[in-house]
Amino acid sequence: MENAKLVGELLDRYALQVVPEKAVSTHANCLKYVKNLRSAFGKMNLEEIEPKDIYSYVDRSPGKTTARREIALLSHAYTKAVEWGYLARHPFKGQVRLPGKAPRDRYVEDWEIAECLSLDSRRRKGSVKVIQAYIRLKLLTGMSRGDMLRLQPAKQFLDEGIAIKRHKVANVTGKQTIYLWTPELREAVKMALDARPVHISPWLFCTKRGQCYFNEETGEASGWNSMWQRFMERVLTETKVIERFTEHDLRAKAGSDAADLEHARALLSHTDSRITNRVYRRKPEKVTPIR
Predict the structure, then answer these.
(1) Does some domain include residue 100?
(2) Which CATH number characterizes residue 157's domain?
């Protein structure tokens, strides 16, 4: 499609070439967004869309969160249109300001972590030991769930540390992060290895069959999600923790506990510290009075 003139034609190429490069778990939603955008803008010429059209679309949409995500996809499609030579410039980039949902601010306190790690395991191995090792490793490195569940010791454990290319952006930046060995990191890894139900598995975190929890075909980790939910139910029932937290909140805790913003950015393998500061630095800012 070398000479796309209509928004619908641009979206068709985007669906064919760009969507397949995104995380598998997002494909279905992206294709729904493309369908909705085609219905609204498909017959318009690429140059016709103006900021007012974007605001009107969001105002008419019953689901504001979905509408904002659809517009984000449309904006990215226009960025690709410039790259593909359909347009000289993006017609609404930097001109539309849609109110977004405030970032989550749940900060997991140290005492809550201690409660989780004190939970008794009914077996020498098993889900509780695995989740506790996972928590320790996550708090030290800030790795995302996908990167942690894909860890393969034989491939990624180097002499100097644990090497990863963040899966979410591996095809974009190709940048590698190495978490240097410390006594605490070695201990967390040892706990994870000891808790595995299958010692010969190539995965640091594996199922009872020694397989990776992450299904690359669906982009889901349903077995892991179920295990995490069962663990949290026990935490809320058997410890002093009263507010549920997510795995992503643990990643944010690692970012919040880092010494400074740059350390947090590097720890989380972000390319831009603005997202680190906005979403992952959740501790209150402490300010000394003038006098």
Answers:
(1) no
(2) 1.10.443.10
- Alpha carbons 246 and 106: distance in angstroms, whole number: 9
CA distance 275 to 279: 6
Q: Are residues 77 and 14 both part of a single domain?
A: yes
Q: Are 115 and 241 in contact (CB under 8 A)?
A: yes
Structure tokens at 220: 């889901």
Kindly calculate the radius of gyration of the chain based on its CA atoms and give it in whole angstroms. 22
Q: How far apart (Å, rounded) are the C-alpha atoms in residues 25 and 220?
A: 6
Are 219 and 167 in contact by the 8 Å Cβ rule? The answer is no
Phi, psi of 236 (to 5 degrees): -70, -25
Query: What tens digit of pLDDT does each residue of 12-23 get?
Result: 999 999 999 888
- The owner of tokens 């644990």 is 162
What gap in Å lies between CA 208 and CA 201, rounded to an integer? Answer: 10
pLDDT tens figures, 259-281 = 999 999 999 989 889 999 999 99
Q: Which domain holds residue 157?
A: 110-280
